[in-house]
Design brief:
alpha+beta; Rossmann fold; Tumour Suppressor Smad4; 2 domains; 12-stranded antiparallel sheet; 4-stranded parallel sheet; ATP-NAD_kinase_N; transferase; kinase; nucleotide-binding
């Protein structure tokens, strides 16, 4: 009987970021947990050479880390050649914000998350292709201009000073974001979304595929990561107070749903007068305003849910 079970045991490779989150899981603990739930499991640290030399005998890959680690593994898969095997991905959220896991409703105790993989349920996940930056890029969460990009720039100075506590990091980022919003100068932006013109003066323009970005800032409720469309979130100068109110509610622990202008689109062209730009959590330094083109690539990735 044992031999029959082993024959059908799914093989997986754990891709672990040992520095993510609060570092509360060791390599041995994670592997032991996964094997206890009936999966064959090998281990790779994404901090070591060769972690992306995937074994084609694996049935799926497990990512234990935050949004940055999920993006890093996804990037390695997107770069694979057409005839190479593409692996479904499973996430053990292990970072600060975990926006991608949240968008897929992957939450709870690690033991329960691992056990859920036995159901075999999968969800196709779109990505956004970005042209116009120094290098062609893609995103899982979003690309944006304005106040959120400025937040990333400011937080780069504080990150090393913050305690290694997830909740404290998120609280600090939200407080800094509020300060940025109150003083940021709105910029003119030309926006063409699926042929429609939405140009104007904005504090924030975000093209997103997940409901939240950054320190768990929900910009669009109900965003479907696999519907073949992206959400364009617009916060004009006249809605500065609305954004400030939302951030204060988050800082004070009050439950408040955002109500920003949102447009669904597959092809977006943006020319932002400023130089504050980010792709996921990476800030891009621009010497001058450039025209950015964003296209949705439907169902490129597949996640276990």
């Amino acid at each position: 009987m044992l031999l029959i079970l082993e024959k059908f045991m799914l093989k997986t490779n754990l891709l672990h970021n040992p520095n993510a989150g609060e570092e509360d899981f060791t390599e041995k603990e994670l592997v032991r947990l996964i094997r206890k739930e009936g999966f064959e499991c090998t281990y790779s640290s994404v901090k070591q050479e060769g972690w992306d030399e995937f074994d084609d005998r694996c049935d799926f890959l497990i990512i234990a880390g935050g949004d940055g680690t999920v993006r890093r593994v996804s990037k390695a898969l997107v770069k694979r050649k057409l005839l190479q095997k593409q692996f479904p991905l499973a996430i053990l959220p292990h970072g600060t914000a975990n926006n991608i896991a949240g968008a897929l409703s992957v939450k709870g105790e690690p033991k329960d998350i691992v056990a859920s993989w036995k159901s075999g349920k999968r969800h196709r996940f779109d990505i956004g292709k970005v042209q116009g930056t120094p290098d062609e890029m893609f995103f899982l969460e979003g690309i944006g201009f304005g106040v959120f990009s400025k937040l990333i720039k400011v937080m780069e100075k504080f990150d090393k000073e913050l305690a290694n506590d997830v909740d404290e990091k998120i609280k600090a980022a939200r407080a800094v974001f509020y300060d940025v919003v109150t003083s940021y100068e709105a910029r003119q932006c030309r926006i063409i979304a699926d042929g429609s013109d939405h140009s104007g003066k904005y504090l924030l323009v975000e093209v997103i595929n997940t409901p939240s970005v950054g320190p768990n800032l929900i910009l669009a409720n109900g965003t479907d990561t696999g519907d073949g469309e992206l959400e364009v979130v617009l916060v004009p100068e006249e809605h500065r107070g609305k954004l400030e109110q939302y951030l204060l509610a988050l800082i004070n622990g009050t439950d408040m749903k955002p109500s920003f202008t949102t447009i669904k689109a597959k092809h977006i062209t943006i020319l932002w007068e400023g130089r504050d730009l980010h792709v996921d959590d990476e800030r891009i330094k621009l010497d001058k305003p450039v025209e950015i083109k964003v296209d949705v690539l439907p169902g490129v990735l597949e996640f276990m849910i």
